Amino acid sequence: MPILSRPGSVRARCTLIAALFAMSVLVVLGATVDLAIRWRVQSDAYSQAERVASQWSPVARDGYVPQPIPANEPVDLIQVVDARHRVVKSSRAASATEPLSMLRPPPDARFQPRTECMRGRCILLQAIRLSPAPDAAVVYAGIPEPDLLATHDLEYAVVAGTALFTGLAAWTAWVLVGRALGPVEAIRSRISQITVSDLSMRVPVPRGNDEITRLATTANHTLSQLEGAVEQLRQFASTTSHELRTPIAGLRTQLEEALLYPEDVDPQQALRSALATAGRLEAIVNDLLLLARLRAADPSPPERIDLGELVAAEVRAQGGSVPARVHAPRGLEIRGSRMQLIRVLDNLLTNAQRHAESLVEVSVEPADDGVAVTVADDGPGIPPAHRERVFERFVRLDEGRRRDPGGSGLGLAISRDIAHSHHGTLTAEDSPRGARFVLWLPLVSGGPTHRPATGL
Fold first, then answer.
1. Residue of 285, 440, 412 lying closest to 354 (CA atoms)
2. Do the domain assignments include residue 447?
3. Does residue 55 belong to any structural domain of this protein?
4. Which of 25, 186, 217, 384 is the most exposed place for a label (fewest CB within 10 A)?
5. CA–CA dist 102, 114 (Å, integer)
6. Which range of residues forms the domain containing residue 405?
7. Are 248 and 380 in a shared domain?
8. Residue 53 CB coordination number (10 Å)
9. Is residue 33 classed exposed, middle or buried when 0-12, 13-18 and 19+ CB atoms within 10 A define those classes?
10. Residue pLDDT, tens place only, 17-46
């Protein structure tokens, strides 16, 4: 059977629970019905016997009882028995010598119901004492025990009905749970077909707005995110391989030339060139390691940082050939990693110093329940079409390659990842002249809601 073949399945467990619940209810209901029917039949039999006995008791008290006593179905067992248990009068169906019962009701309780069984036969009778006198006779009126009470047919019927309805409840639960879990099985089957090499498949979404529909929708959304993440990882691996291949190939060429043509190649110059290439490789690898750490959880707990004080300190520490004008009020506190934020500020200030013509402006202002750090220069600026591309890994515009040939192309990508890890943003915004980067971070507590001015 399906239930026995898969005892651990949700469908089997739900069916078993439904069957046990139905059986429990039906057993209680069946027992109640059985007892109620038995009590009703027995009560009706006693009532009929009492009615017939009550009819003959005054007649017997006056001594006018005929022989045999007339009787009708179903109460056809009638006797008048004296104090010595001798049958005085009886109906045709009752014995003329043996009393129906040896019961003599006491004077203070003249009406007594009784069930008498002898020779495998039971009788439901009513005994009525004619008077409180010691020698008063007793009238017995009895009815043979109905078959419903004499046999267990009623119990058999209750058991059969309980089994039938329990099986029906189990079958209904099996079918309904199977239909309800059909979409889950379809989702499981589809997920089992999805592999890392092909994440384009999606699970079927059933109709409606129930839990299974929302589960399928969430699963598809997760698969979409996973597919995007895997695709980004592939692109990142491909781009990283390409970026590392060029300096490695150059380094190999320089070393081979130094070995093959020792007379034509200056060893000192070859070593300096190789060391510069190794330095660029080291910078790329370090930036890649930092990106990997940013993707993982930061083991160090965040700390409260006065962002204005931190910005002012970094501008002073960096110096630079181009003067910097700073507006960084204190009191604007954020929560985060000091070393990571120093890395962001260092990247932004280095870029601004590299491209500025005469001035770098840095400001710290409250904005939208947070604080915005703006770093602007008066250099050539970034074309609007490339303002998002500069945050991609290994993307370097022509102007950047010209001014810093040894850069890794990961500084702004790392800076944006750090901003996101602090629940903030880093964007390149419009500026009357030059480039303008805005770092927004949430304050520890709510702050002003006005945005900083877009111009400088």
1. 412
2. no
3. yes
4. 384
5. 10
6. 303-442
7. no
8. 24
9. middle
10. 999 999 999 999 999 999 999 999 999 999
| Domain co-membership, 308 together with 422 | yes
Q: What span, in angstroms and rounded, lies between the C-alpha atoms of 277 and 451?
A: 44
148 and 78, same domain (yes or no): yes
Domain with residue 270: its CATH number is 1.10.287.130
Distance CA(344)–CA(350), nearest Å, equals 10
Residue 436: name the closest of 333, 359, 329 by CA: 359
pTM exceeds 0.90 for this model: no
**Dihedral-angle region of residue 120 (phi above 0 means left; psi in -120 to 50 means alpha; beta otherwise):** left
CB of 305 closer than 8 Å to CB of 334: yes
Residues 287 and 314 in one domain: no
- Number of CB atoms found within 10 A of residue 273's CB: 19
Same domain, 347 and 437: yes
Model pLDDT for residues 207-226, shown as the tens digit of each residue: 878 788 888 888 888 888 88
Report which of 334, 338, 342 is spatially closest to residue 314, judged by C-alpha positions: 342
CATH number reported for the structural domain that contains residue 428 in this entry: 3.30.565.10
d(CA 349, CA 361): 10
Structure tokens at 75: 């109460």
Domain count of the fold of the chain: 3
83-125 pLDDT, tens digit per residue, is 888 999 889 988 888 998 888 899 888 898 988 887 778 899 9
* DSSP H/E element including 62: helix 10-62
Is position 244 within any domain?
Answer: yes
Residues 6+ apart with CB under 8 A from 124: 42, 45, 46, 49, 113, 114, 115, 142, 143, 144, 145
Same domain, 310 and 433: yes
- For residue 332, give both structure tokens: 């604007």
**Final residue of a structural domain among 249, 265, 295:** 295
